[in-house]
């Protein structure tokens, strides 16, 4: 059966079905080949392995992966022009998809867990030697609330490489606690998230929504909605990307975005940050229902007066600025 037009409803409950599409037990390795199209395939992936190990100028269309380490990967800093169209990854231990460098398109991808498994990254765009122009659109991250890793939803990540001028749009992210939508590392710049919905099945549980971390800058989030987060927007520095010696993010913009029903606060600065998060702007945003508007875990406070809230609405926020947040 070549699959024909078979496209099942993708969800956490979808399982492999050899009567509908060809089913492979193992993996497909095409790291030396180019200009290949993989279409209408299923893979029960071997433990610790990727389902599709890819190279430049390859396409996966209507392909489905279960278990294993990664669903789809291209882990070279020079990779380019890979397309994933209407694909699916479920219950990986590392990543649903991880692509490096430039000119990749991920369209209509569904990445999920179904229970107590430990998927770390659901959809991840990594930097490269000249990383730019990657695109994720019309895609879904659906983490099961019982998954043993709290999960990174959709993210831009440097990891020693550059990634600029890339786009995530028209996507939904559910139940990711390590960062629903991440801009991560100082080489992540000039990227855009547009029409992103970030939510959680339970208010405040496993949903730290928009994350600016490890020195990222000049990125933009627009026309999005964050609901039921622990923190709606978080600035964080970690031991990655040169260590604990920088801010979470500066010169980033969030515009025309709604934040609702935050469990702790709308804005948070993590305790690992050691330099001021500066010149970030929130424009035409609505903040509705949270115990605190802003909280900081740092002393001194590293969210300084150069950050701006322009033409924003704050509603039903009992303590608009948390106690002790002096410089905000």
Distance between the termini: 62 Å
Helix content: under 10%
Unreliable stretches: 323-328
Tell me the major beta sheet. Answer: 8 strands, parallel, barrel
CA-based shape = globular
Rg (CA only): 20 Å
Number of strands: 34
Topology:
Layout: E1 23-26, E2 28-29, E3 36-45, E4 50-53, E5 58-66, E6 70-74, E7 83-85, E8 88-90, E9 95-100, E10 105-107, E11 110-112, E12 121-126, E13 131-132, E14 135-137, E15 140-142, E16 152-157, E17 163-164, E18 167-174, E19 181-184, E20 188-189, E21 192-199, E22 208-213, E23 216-217, E24 220-222, E25 225-227, E26 231-236, E27 249-250, E28 253-255, E29 258-260, E30 265-269, E31 281-283, E32 286-296, E33 308-310, E34 313-319
Parallel strand pairs: 1-3, 2-4, 3-5, 4-6, 5-7, 5-8, 6-9, 7-10, 8-11, 9-12, 10-14, 11-15, 12-16, 13-17, 14-18, 15-18, 16-19, 17-20, 18-21, 19-22, 21-24, 21-25, 22-26, 23-27, 24-28, 25-29, 26-30, 28-31, 29-32, 30-32, 31-33, 32-34
